[in-house]
Protein backbone atom coordinates (compact mmCIF):
# COMPACT_ATOMS: atom_id res chain seq x y z
CA UNK A 1 0.00 0.00 0.00
CA UNK A 2 2.92 2.34 0.63
CA UNK A 3 4.12 1.49 -2.86
CA UNK A 4 0.67 2.19 -4.30
CA UNK A 5 0.56 5.57 -2.58
CA UNK A 6 3.91 6.60 -4.03
CA UNK A 7 3.05 5.34 -7.52
CA UNK A 8 -0.22 7.30 -7.47
CA UNK A 9 1.68 10.38 -6.26
CA UNK A 10 4.29 9.99 -9.01
CA UNK A 11 1.55 9.53 -11.61
CA UNK A 12 -0.30 12.62 -10.35
CA UNK A 13 2.90 14.66 -10.65
CA UNK A 14 3.45 13.47 -14.22
CA UNK A 15 -0.16 14.27 -15.13
CA UNK A 16 0.24 17.77 -13.68
CA UNK A 17 3.30 18.37 -15.89
CA UNK A 18 1.38 17.09 -18.93
CA UNK A 19 -1.58 19.41 -18.28
CA UNK A 20 0.73 22.42 -17.93
CA UNK A 21 1.78 22.05 -21.57
CA UNK A 22 -0.97 19.96 -23.19
CA UNK A 23 -4.19 20.90 -21.41
CA UNK A 24 -7.09 18.87 -22.77
CA UNK A 25 -4.85 16.08 -24.03
CA UNK A 26 -5.95 12.49 -24.43
CA UNK A 27 -3.78 10.94 -21.70
CA UNK A 28 -5.43 10.21 -18.35
CA UNK A 29 -4.18 9.49 -14.82
CA UNK A 30 -3.99 5.66 -15.31
CA UNK A 31 -1.61 6.22 -18.23
CA UNK A 32 0.71 8.31 -16.07
CA UNK A 33 0.50 5.79 -13.23
CA UNK A 34 1.63 3.11 -15.71
CA UNK A 35 4.59 5.30 -16.77
CA UNK A 36 5.46 5.98 -13.12
CA UNK A 37 5.31 2.26 -12.31
CA UNK A 38 7.62 1.46 -15.22
CA UNK A 39 10.18 4.05 -14.03
CA UNK A 40 9.97 2.69 -10.45
CA UNK A 41 10.55 -0.84 -11.77
CA UNK A 42 13.57 0.28 -13.82
CA UNK A 43 14.99 2.08 -10.78
CA UNK A 44 14.48 -1.05 -8.64
CA UNK A 45 16.30 -3.16 -11.23
CA UNK A 46 19.22 -0.72 -11.52
CA UNK A 47 19.65 -0.22 -7.74
CA UNK A 48 20.35 -3.74 -6.44
CA UNK A 49 20.26 -2.91 -2.71
CA UNK A 50 19.60 -0.01 -0.34
CA UNK A 51 23.26 0.82 0.19
CA UNK A 52 23.63 1.35 -3.58
CA UNK A 53 21.41 4.41 -3.43
CA UNK A 54 24.52 6.50 -2.67
CA UNK A 55 24.30 9.80 -4.52
CA UNK A 56 20.57 9.36 -5.06
CA UNK A 57 20.04 10.26 -1.39
CA UNK A 58 21.68 13.61 -2.12
CA UNK A 59 19.41 14.11 -5.12
CA UNK A 60 16.48 13.17 -2.89
CA UNK A 61 17.31 16.02 -0.52
CA UNK A 62 17.56 18.50 -3.40
CA UNK A 63 14.24 17.32 -4.88
CA UNK A 64 12.48 17.61 -1.50
CA UNK A 65 13.81 21.12 -0.83
CA UNK A 66 12.90 22.30 -4.34
CA UNK A 67 9.33 21.04 -3.94
CA UNK A 68 8.98 22.52 -0.44
CA UNK A 69 10.28 25.97 -1.41
CA UNK A 70 8.17 26.22 -4.57
CA UNK A 71 4.98 24.90 -2.95
CA UNK A 72 5.44 27.20 0.06
CA UNK A 73 6.18 30.37 -1.93
CA UNK A 74 3.35 29.85 -4.44
CA UNK A 75 0.86 28.97 -1.67
CA UNK A 76 1.76 32.11 0.29
CA UNK A 77 1.49 34.21 -2.88
CA UNK A 78 -1.96 32.76 -3.68
CA UNK A 79 -3.12 33.10 -0.08
CA UNK A 80 -2.26 36.79 0.09
CA UNK A 81 -4.22 37.52 -3.12
CA UNK A 82 -7.17 35.17 -2.53
CA UNK A 83 -10.55 36.27 -1.12
CA UNK A 84 -11.97 34.78 2.08
CA UNK A 85 -11.70 30.99 2.17
CA UNK A 86 -13.97 28.33 3.65
CA UNK A 87 -12.18 26.33 6.36
CA UNK A 88 -15.12 24.23 7.53
CA UNK A 89 -15.01 20.45 7.19
CA UNK A 90 -17.73 19.50 4.67
CA UNK A 91 -20.16 16.62 5.15
CA UNK A 92 -22.58 15.18 7.67
CA UNK A 93 -21.63 14.76 11.35
CA UNK A 94 -20.99 11.04 10.76
CA UNK A 95 -18.81 11.62 7.71
CA UNK A 96 -16.86 14.30 9.60
CA UNK A 97 -16.01 11.77 12.33
CA UNK A 98 -14.79 9.20 9.79
CA UNK A 99 -12.89 11.85 7.84
CA UNK A 100 -11.14 13.11 10.98
CA UNK A 101 -10.15 9.60 12.05
CA UNK A 102 -8.88 8.88 8.53
CA UNK A 103 -6.94 12.15 8.58
CA UNK A 104 -5.11 11.03 11.73
CA UNK A 105 -3.82 8.01 9.81
CA UNK A 106 -2.85 10.34 6.95
CA UNK A 107 -0.79 12.40 9.38
CA UNK A 108 1.19 9.51 10.83
CA UNK A 109 1.86 8.25 7.29
CA UNK A 110 3.00 11.65 5.99
CA UNK A 111 5.19 12.49 9.00
CA UNK A 112 6.66 9.04 9.56
CA UNK A 113 9.96 10.19 8.05
CA UNK A 114 12.38 8.84 10.63
CA UNK A 115 13.37 5.74 8.64
CA UNK A 116 16.07 7.33 6.49
CA UNK A 117 18.01 9.18 9.24
CA UNK A 118 17.69 6.08 11.41
CA UNK A 119 19.25 3.88 8.72
CA UNK A 120 21.98 6.35 7.88
CA UNK A 121 22.86 6.97 11.54
CA UNK A 122 23.54 3.27 12.19
CA UNK A 123 26.45 3.21 9.75
CA UNK A 124 29.04 4.41 12.29
CA UNK A 125 29.53 3.98 16.01
CA UNK A 126 28.07 4.73 18.53
CA UNK A 127 24.92 3.47 16.84
CA UNK A 128 22.24 4.37 19.42
CA UNK A 129 23.62 7.83 20.12
CA UNK A 130 23.88 8.68 16.43
CA UNK A 131 20.39 7.30 15.73
CA UNK A 132 18.86 9.38 18.53
CA UNK A 133 20.65 12.52 17.33
CA UNK A 134 19.33 11.91 13.81
CA UNK A 135 15.78 11.40 15.05
CA UNK A 136 15.88 14.47 17.32
CA UNK A 137 17.04 16.52 14.34
CA UNK A 138 14.42 14.99 12.05
CA UNK A 139 11.50 15.70 14.38
CA UNK A 140 12.55 19.28 15.27
CA UNK A 141 14.29 21.05 12.40
CA UNK A 142 13.34 18.31 9.92
CA UNK A 143 9.57 18.62 10.31
CA UNK A 144 9.55 22.43 10.13
CA UNK A 145 9.40 22.67 6.31
CA UNK A 146 6.75 19.94 6.22
CA UNK A 147 4.57 21.88 8.65
CA UNK A 148 5.16 25.10 6.69
CA UNK A 149 3.84 23.55 3.47
CA UNK A 150 0.90 21.91 5.23
CA UNK A 151 -0.33 25.01 7.06
CA UNK A 152 0.47 27.44 4.23
CA UNK A 153 -1.42 25.25 1.76
CA UNK A 154 -4.50 24.96 3.94
CA UNK A 155 -4.40 28.66 4.80
CA UNK A 156 -4.22 29.59 1.11
CA UNK A 157 -6.95 27.31 -0.24
CA UNK A 158 -9.08 26.27 2.75
CA UNK A 159 -11.21 23.15 2.59
CA UNK A 160 -10.90 23.12 -1.22
CA UNK A 161 -7.24 22.13 -0.93
CA UNK A 162 -6.62 19.03 -3.05
CA UNK A 163 -4.72 15.96 -1.90
CA UNK A 164 -1.92 16.91 -4.29
CA UNK A 165 -1.20 20.55 -3.35
CA UNK A 166 0.41 21.54 -6.67
CA UNK A 167 -2.99 21.11 -8.34
CA UNK A 168 -4.10 24.23 -6.43
CA UNK A 169 -1.15 26.59 -6.82
CA UNK A 170 -0.91 29.33 -9.47
CA UNK A 171 2.35 30.64 -10.87
CA UNK A 172 4.79 30.54 -13.78
CA UNK A 173 4.44 27.36 -15.80
CA UNK A 174 8.15 26.54 -15.68
CA UNK A 175 8.23 26.87 -11.87
CA UNK A 176 5.23 24.55 -11.46
CA UNK A 177 6.80 22.13 -13.94
CA UNK A 178 10.02 22.01 -11.88
CA UNK A 179 8.04 21.37 -8.68
CA UNK A 180 6.04 18.55 -10.28
CA UNK A 181 9.12 16.92 -11.80
CA UNK A 182 10.91 16.98 -8.43
CA UNK A 183 7.81 15.45 -6.80
CA UNK A 184 7.85 12.67 -9.39
CA UNK A 185 11.57 11.91 -9.01
CA UNK A 186 11.40 12.06 -5.21
CA UNK A 187 8.47 9.62 -5.23
CA UNK A 188 10.53 7.12 -7.24
CA UNK A 189 13.43 7.29 -4.76
CA UNK A 190 11.17 7.21 -1.68
CA UNK A 191 9.27 4.19 -3.00
CA UNK A 192 12.54 2.32 -3.46
CA UNK A 193 13.49 2.96 0.18
CA UNK A 194 10.18 1.60 1.48
CA UNK A 195 10.17 -1.33 -0.97
CA UNK A 196 13.77 -2.33 -0.18
CA UNK A 197 12.87 -4.64 2.75
CA UNK A 198 10.73 -6.70 0.34
CA UNK A 199 13.51 -6.70 -2.25
CA UNK A 200 16.07 -7.79 0.33
CA UNK A 201 13.76 -10.54 1.61
CA UNK A 202 13.21 -11.92 -1.89
CA UNK A 203 16.93 -11.77 -2.71
CA UNK A 204 17.81 -13.61 0.52
CA UNK A 205 15.05 -16.20 0.13
CA UNK A 206 16.22 -17.11 -3.39
CA UNK A 207 19.94 -17.00 -2.62
CA UNK A 208 20.85 -14.00 -4.76
CA UNK A 209 24.50 -13.22 -4.04
CA UNK A 210 27.57 -11.91 -5.84
CA UNK A 211 27.80 -9.32 -8.58
CA UNK A 212 24.67 -7.31 -9.26
CA UNK A 213 25.45 -7.53 -12.99
CA UNK A 214 25.68 -11.33 -13.08
CA UNK A 215 23.12 -12.70 -15.54
CA UNK A 216 21.26 -14.72 -12.88
CA UNK A 217 21.03 -11.77 -10.49
CA UNK A 218 20.06 -9.25 -13.15
CA UNK A 219 17.41 -11.51 -14.68
CA UNK A 220 16.03 -12.24 -11.20
CA UNK A 221 15.61 -8.52 -10.52
CA UNK A 222 13.95 -7.97 -13.89
CA UNK A 223 11.44 -10.78 -13.36
CA UNK A 224 10.76 -10.55 -9.63
CA UNK A 225 11.05 -6.83 -8.95
CA UNK A 226 9.50 -6.03 -12.32
CA UNK A 227 6.59 -8.34 -11.55
CA UNK A 228 6.22 -6.92 -8.03
CA UNK A 229 6.07 -3.36 -9.40
CA UNK A 230 3.65 -4.42 -12.15
CA UNK A 231 1.23 -5.72 -9.51
CA UNK A 232 1.60 -2.53 -7.45
CA UNK A 233 1.08 -0.36 -10.52
CA UNK A 234 -2.07 -2.25 -11.54
CA UNK A 235 -3.62 -1.76 -8.08
CA UNK A 236 -2.62 1.93 -8.15
CA UNK A 237 -4.26 2.52 -11.53
CA UNK A 238 -7.32 0.46 -10.58
CA UNK A 239 -8.05 2.51 -7.43
CA UNK A 240 -6.13 5.79 -7.75
CA UNK A 241 -7.39 7.34 -4.51
CA UNK A 242 -4.19 8.80 -3.07
CA UNK A 243 -5.63 10.18 0.17
CA UNK A 244 -7.53 6.97 0.88
CA UNK A 245 -4.45 4.80 0.36
CA UNK A 246 -2.45 7.08 2.65
CA UNK A 247 -5.13 6.65 5.34
CA UNK A 248 -5.22 2.87 4.99
CA UNK A 249 -1.43 2.61 5.01
CA UNK A 250 -1.16 4.78 8.10
CA UNK A 251 -3.88 2.76 9.83
CA UNK A 252 -2.57 -0.79 9.31
CA UNK A 253 1.14 -0.08 8.90
CA UNK A 254 2.37 3.14 10.50
CA UNK A 255 0.20 3.07 13.64
CA UNK A 256 1.20 -0.50 14.60
CA UNK A 257 4.89 -0.22 13.66
CA UNK A 258 5.53 3.26 15.05
CA UNK A 259 3.43 3.30 18.21
CA UNK A 260 2.28 -0.21 19.18
CA UNK A 261 5.33 -2.33 18.31
CA UNK A 262 7.83 0.25 19.62
CA UNK A 263 6.11 0.51 23.01
CA UNK A 264 5.76 -3.26 23.32
CA UNK A 265 9.41 -3.86 22.40
CA UNK A 266 10.48 -1.29 24.99
CA UNK A 267 8.39 -3.06 27.64
CA UNK A 268 9.87 -6.45 26.75
CA UNK A 269 13.44 -5.15 26.76
CA UNK A 270 13.14 -3.25 30.04
CA UNK A 271 10.54 -5.28 31.91
CA UNK A 272 12.57 -5.53 35.13
CA UNK A 273 13.80 -1.93 35.04
CA UNK A 274 10.49 -0.04 34.76
CA UNK A 275 8.25 1.18 37.57
CA UNK A 276 4.56 0.34 37.63
CA UNK A 277 3.71 3.87 36.45
CA UNK A 278 6.10 3.57 33.49
CA UNK A 279 4.67 0.18 32.51
CA UNK A 280 1.13 1.56 32.76
CA UNK A 281 2.08 4.48 30.52
CA UNK A 282 3.38 2.19 27.79
CA UNK A 283 0.38 -0.12 28.00
CA UNK A 284 -1.94 2.91 27.70
CA UNK A 285 -0.05 3.87 24.53
CA UNK A 286 -0.35 0.35 23.15
CA UNK A 287 -4.10 0.10 23.71
CA UNK A 288 -4.88 3.67 22.65
CA UNK A 289 -3.05 3.33 19.35
CA UNK A 290 -4.45 -0.17 18.81
CA UNK A 291 -7.95 1.34 19.02
CA UNK A 292 -6.87 4.22 16.76
CA UNK A 293 -5.44 1.75 14.26
CA UNK A 294 -8.68 -0.26 14.15
CA UNK A 295 -10.86 2.87 13.89
CA UNK A 296 -8.66 4.42 11.18
CA UNK A 297 -8.72 1.15 9.20
CA UNK A 298 -12.52 1.17 9.22
CA UNK A 299 -12.57 4.86 8.26
CA UNK A 300 -10.11 4.33 5.40
CA UNK A 301 -12.00 1.32 4.03
CA UNK A 302 -15.21 3.37 4.18
CA UNK A 303 -13.55 6.20 2.24
CA UNK A 304 -12.30 3.77 -0.42
CA UNK A 305 -15.78 2.20 -0.69
CA UNK A 306 -17.44 5.61 -1.09
CA UNK A 307 -14.92 6.78 -3.67
CA UNK A 308 -15.30 3.49 -5.53
CA UNK A 309 -19.03 4.22 -5.84
CA UNK A 310 -18.43 7.83 -6.90
CA UNK A 311 -15.68 7.04 -9.42
CA UNK A 312 -15.28 4.09 -11.76
CA UNK A 313 -12.19 1.88 -11.72
CA UNK A 314 -9.18 3.35 -13.52
CA UNK A 315 -10.64 6.79 -12.76
CA UNK A 316 -9.02 9.97 -14.04
CA UNK A 317 -8.86 12.07 -10.87
UniProtKB/TrEMBL annotation:
Membrane topology: Multi-pass membrane protein
Gene Ontology cellular component list: endomembrane system; plasma membrane
InterPro entries given in the database record: AA_transpt_TM
GO molecular function list: symporter activity
Chain segments annotated as transmembrane: 6-22, 29-50, 56-76, 134-157, 177-202, 248-266, 286-305
Places the protein is found: Cell membrane; Endomembrane system
Keywords (A to Z) from UniProt: Amino-acid transport, Auxin signaling pathway, Cell membrane, Membrane, Symport, Transmembrane, Transmembrane helix, Transport
GO-annotated biological processes: amino acid transport; auxin-activated signaling pathway
Claim: NADP is one of the keywords in the record: no
Stretches assigned to the Amino acid transporter transmembrane domain: 1-299
Record's keyword annotation contains Thylakoid: no
Chief location bin: membrane
Family of the protein in this entry: Belongs to the amino acid/polyamine transporter 2 family. Amino acid/auxin permease (AAAP) (TC 2.A.18.1) subfamily.
Primary role: Carrier protein involved in proton-driven auxin influx. Mediates the formation of auxin gradient from developing leaves (site of auxin biosynthesis) to tips by contributing to the loading of auxin in vascular tissues and facilitating acropetal (base to tip) auxin transport within inner tissues of the root apex, and basipetal (tip to base) auxin transport within outer tissues of the root apex. May be involved in lateral roots and nodules formation.
Name the record gives this protein: Proline transporter 1-like isoform X2
Amino acid sequence: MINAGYIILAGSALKAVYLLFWDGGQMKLPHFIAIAGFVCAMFAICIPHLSALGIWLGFSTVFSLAYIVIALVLSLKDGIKSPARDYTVPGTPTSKIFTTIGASANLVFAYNTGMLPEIQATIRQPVVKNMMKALYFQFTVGVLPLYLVTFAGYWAYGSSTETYLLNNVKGPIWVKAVANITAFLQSVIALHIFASPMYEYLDTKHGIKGSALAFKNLSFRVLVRGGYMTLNTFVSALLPFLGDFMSLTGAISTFPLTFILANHMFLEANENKLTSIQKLWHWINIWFFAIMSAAATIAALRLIALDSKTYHVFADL
